[in-house]
Structures are given as C-alpha cells and as structure tokens.
Write a structure and sequence with these properties.
The chain has 172 residues and is α/β, with parallel strands linked by helices. It has 9 helices and 7 strands. It has a single domain, classed as Rossmann fold (3-Layer(aba) Sandwich).
C-alpha cells in the first residue's frame, strides 16, 4: 500500500498519516524532513536533493504513507501510483487543528520554539487560499486534478471508519 496525503497546514495530514502508519504498518515520511535543512525549519534544501530523497524513500520502502504541503514533492511520489488523499477541511478547521497540535520535536527544538511560530502558522494557513506556488490551494488542486490514479478529496474531518474502509479497499 502506498498513500500520499496533501493539504494545507493543519488539515490533518500528519494525524491521518500516523493513524494509517500505525494501523496498516506503513512507513511514514513527513515531507518537512526532506524539504528543510536538518534542524533548520525555514531554511529550504535544494529542490533536486529533496526530490531525490523522496525518490530514494519510495524506491527503498514497499509500503508507505507520505504527507506534506509541498506539491512538487508529492508529485515526485506520484510516480509510484499511490492513493492520493487531498485534505481540504477549510481554514477554520485547519486553524483549530493547529491550536490542538502537540509539540513536533522533529521540527522544533522545544514546545516553546514551536509556540513562538504559532501566529506565523495561523497567518500561513489563511494565506493558503490566496497564495501562489508549491504550498497553495491552487497547486494542490491542480496536482489532484491532473492525477489519473486513485484519489479522494476530503473536505471534512476524516472518520476513522472511512480510513479503515479505505485501507481495506486499497489492500483488496
């Protein structure tokens, strides 16, 4: 089983990826870990190197789930014909999810460091619907529309039963 999850910050990508990884024994890749220099969120890596890391992960891992807000990196993983899930629950749901987000030690050295970026994160979430580029609704929608493989756009919080049914169908 191979799954790519794409969406805005706070859309539920990481939570869904963790649930799928735990329940279906998938190896998870958070695209933040290849997009940014190690330990330096906000300092982008060379795009070719990041895409090479996605390719290496996909080549060396049989069953996986990849999640992130980077259309170009998600596109790189689509070469393996995964199930594509585009999460778009709306700005308020994304902001609520971020308010409940636990500390992400793979991104920030402390909960305090993460909290210091909170207002920036909320502004980033709101800009999703207006901005251009790799992290925008426009680029995510274009990627989703152009993908000819199995795909779902989810506009509400994902029900755990839906996930189980989806993964059973994908395995079946």
């Amino acid at each position: 089983m191979r799954i790519v999850i794409l969406g805005n910050s706070g859309s539920g990508k990481s939570t869904l990826a963790r649930e799928l990884a735990a329940n279906r024994y998938l190896t998870a890749l958070d695209l933040d870990t290849v997009a940014w220099k190690r330990g330096r969120i906000g300092v982008a890596r060379n795009a070719r190197d990041a895409i090479a890391d996605v390719h290496a992960f996909c080549n060396t891992t049989e069953h996986w789930v990849i999640e992130g807000c980077y259309a170009s990196l998600a596109q790189a993983a689509l070469e393996w014909s995964p199930l594509l899930l585009f999460l778009e629950p709306g700005v308020e749901a994304c902001m609520d999810n971020c308010r409940q987000r636990p500390w992400e030690p793979h991104k920030y050295p402390s909960k305090q460091a993460q909290d210091a970026k909170f207002e920036f994160l909320l502004a980033w979430i709101k800009e999703y619907y207006r901005r251009d580029g790799d992290h925008s609704l426009a680029s995510h929608q274009a990627l989703f529309d152009s993908y000819s493989g199995r795909k779902y756009k989810l506009t509400e919080r994902v029900d755990p039963q839906f996930i189980e049914n989806l993964t059973l169908q994908t395995h079946g």
